[in-house]
Amino acid sequence: METMWLSGAEWLAVLRIGLGLWWLESWRHKDKKTWFTGGGIGWAAGIADKHRWAFVRSGFDVVVKPRPRTMAYVVAYAELALGLGLIVGFLTPIALACGFVLNLIYLVLMIHDWGEQGQNLMMALISAVALFAMSWQAWSLDHAFGLFT
């Protein structure tokens, strides 16, 4: 593929790195003290309680509500791991697939908030494009180590 300035693989790496920076910002902007003491999960519980779909309410009640502290750490450090993994290109296909799933979970939970919808849809689309276009072919540890060739 011929492009201006960078190769196609390098442009895909730019997309992957940009998505990684977006995930890293999602982690960075969290008020960690409030988040890890139940603030983030409490906020999400309020949204899940009023959700229009019963499976979201019941799923949240079964998986998240009984372990708010653990889930707060899982969410925050998943965002950090996704960000770092995508930026350096380590285990990139796994990070892209997990990020796609996490964005879908956020999308379903935040079905009423159109602002959140846009962000999660864009991030999910970028994840899908970066995954299926194999964005780890340039500027990545995966490429340097010969992983996922």
Task: Summarize the structure in short.
The protein contains 8 helices and no strands. It is mainly alpha-helical and 149 residues long. α5 packs across α6 (92-109) and α6 packs antiparallel against α7 (114-132).
List keywords for this structure.
149 residues; elongated; mainly alpha
Describe the structure.
With 149 residues, the protein is an all-alpha fold. The protein has one domain (32-145). It has eight helices and no strands. The protein has helices at 8-28, 32-36, 39-49, 54-63, 68-88, 92-109, 114-132, 141-145. The relative contact order is 0.17.
Tell me the domain tally. Answer: 1
Low-pLDDT segments: none
Largest sheet: none
Q: How far is the first residue's CA from the last residue's CA? A: 18 Å
β-strand percent reads: under 5%
Average pLDDT for all residues? 94
- Name the overall outline: elongated
Number of strands: 0
Q: Any chance you could write out the topology, listing elements then pairs?
A:
Layout: H1 8-28, H2 32-36, H3 39-49, H4 54-63, H5 68-88, H6 92-109, H7 114-132, H8 141-145
Helix pairs in contact: 1-5, 1-7, 5-6, 6-7
Organism: Streptomyces longisporoflavus
Transmembrane segments: 94-114, 121-139
Protein name: DoxX family protein
